[in-house]
Amino acid sequence: MFTKKIKYFLLIESIKDIDLKNIKIRNKFSIIYRNNNKTDDLDDLLKFRRQCRIKAIKFYIANNFSLAFFLNSDGLYLSSFNKNLNVLNFKKNNFEIIGSAHNIKEIILKKKQGCSFILLSKLFKVDYDKKAPFLGVLKFNNLSKISKNLIPLGGIKYENINNLKNVFCLGIAILSEIKKKPTKIFSRLF
User: Fold this and answer.
1) Between 121 and which of 44, 81, 154, 163 could a Cys-Cys bridge form, CB atoms 3.0 to 4.6 Å apart?
2) Is residue 61 domain-resident?
């Protein structure tokens, strides 16, 4: 068991990636829907959104303002490549804005965009690109002194989840492990 966090962000690329029955704790989980392929039907998305509401799971849409309004999502997720400062207008509509960043420059931009949480990538080495740079626990902790709302993302697996007790953060964000080992990862999060 690792140190419990306040928030858990689960990034999915399709609503088929996650079974909401595995989530048993209320008000701790947020799902970020990052579908670039647009394979999910709007009716299915509406049903999924309703299920999230019933289970008190926050639901965010990535970089698609019109879909976020249509689904009445809890907010927007701005990828690191999204540099649009007009998103501050959406904050007035009770939309929470979450962003992602890879370096200090992008962290500052996400603060200007009004992000309540910033997912900072990559914490650990990732499987899909072994040569890609990653922060590690010490660098992440140093960056967390700049901004208290940083959430680690990248390389978080079932095998290294115990290392998160050394990370100064309010929560964690998980992407690929949700698809690979959902029941194992959920059992470790409680």
Assistant:
1) 154
2) yes
CB under 8 Å to 44, separation ≥6 — which residues?
15
**CA-CA distance, 127 to 13, in Å (whole number)?**
18
Note the Cα 16 to chain centre separation in Å.
Answer: 17
Q: What is the pLDDT of residues 82-93, one digit of tens each?
A: 888 777 666 656
Task: Tell me the helix, strand and coil percentages in the chain, rounded to 5.
Answer: 35, 20, 45
Smallest CA-to-CA distance from 29 within 173, 181, 157 is with 173
| Structural domain contains residue 1 | no
CATH, residue 115: 3.20.20.70
Residue 118 lies in domain: 7-189
* Identity at 94, one-letter amino acid code: N
DSSP string covering 4-32: --SEEEEEESSGGG--GGG--SSSSEEEE
Over the stretch 91-149, which tens digit does the pLDDT of each residue have?
Answer: 656 788 999 999 889 999 999 998 999 998 888 877 767 777 777 778 888 888 888 89
Q: Indicate whether 73 belongs to any domain.
A: yes
Q: CA 163, 137, 82 angle in degrees (round to 5)?
A: 115
Total domains in the chain come to 1
